[in-house]
Specification:
Residues 134-161 have a biased composition (Polar residues). The protein is an all-alpha fold and 161 residues long. The protein has helices at residues 3-7, 16-27, 30-42, 50-61, 65-68, 71-81, 84-91, 98-134, 138-152. Helices cover 73% and strands 0% of the residues. Helix 6 packs parallel to helix 8 (98-134) and helix 7 packs across helix 8 (98-134).
């Protein structure tokens, strides 16, 4: 049965709401809508970028309109699904609306990446400097550092752990 046949018995003008209701009842049965709503409620950023998470959040939120009618709930749900370090950082910031929250999350992600990249570059530079002073190649140095650290780990009573 097509959407047209679903709407045919009613002689009223076709409104967007009527079309949407007929379309959803035809192509998204209530069981599928419940699945999509559940996906929305369980959505977390995990390995996605903030942009990918936002796109998936927006896509799934269309299937749970009653859950995102309240702007505060929408913002809280988005924030709770972010990676923990972004969620903790945003907790101290009061966003005025959903778009503001998403923008702040993207900016925090950039800052976290820059911070991590800076730390990584400094560590690599320290390793190169140490290698240059000791005259060892970096792979030998890394192995010797790891071996000396492993052999130096001791638990209580002098036992190596």
């Amino acid at each position: 049965m097509s959407v047209e046949r679903t709407l045919a018995p009613v002689l009223e003008a076709l409104t967007w709401q009527r079309f949407r209701t007929a379309f959803y009842s035809k192509y998204f049965p209530s069981s599928r809508l419940r699945e999509l709503e559940s996906e929305f409620l369980n959505l977390n950023q995990e390995t996605m970028t903030v942009d990918e998470y936002e796109a998936e959040f927006d896509r799934l939120s269309r299937f749970a309109p009653t859950l995102v009618m309240d702007a505060e709930f929408q913002m809280r749900r988005f924030e709770e699904g972010l990676k923990p370090h972004l969620h903790r950082s945003l907790a101290a910031i009061h966003s005025t609306n959903y778009d503001d929250l998403v923008d702040r999350a993207k900016n925090l992600k950039i800052v976290w990446k820059e911070t991590y990249d800076t730390k990584d570059r400094k560590q690599k530079k320290r390793n190169r400097d140490y290698d240059a002073r000791s005259g060892q190649s970096s792979s030998k140095t890394a192995k010797s550092h790891n071996q000396s650290w492993q052999s130096g780990k001791q638990g209580s009573y002098g036992k190596t752990i």
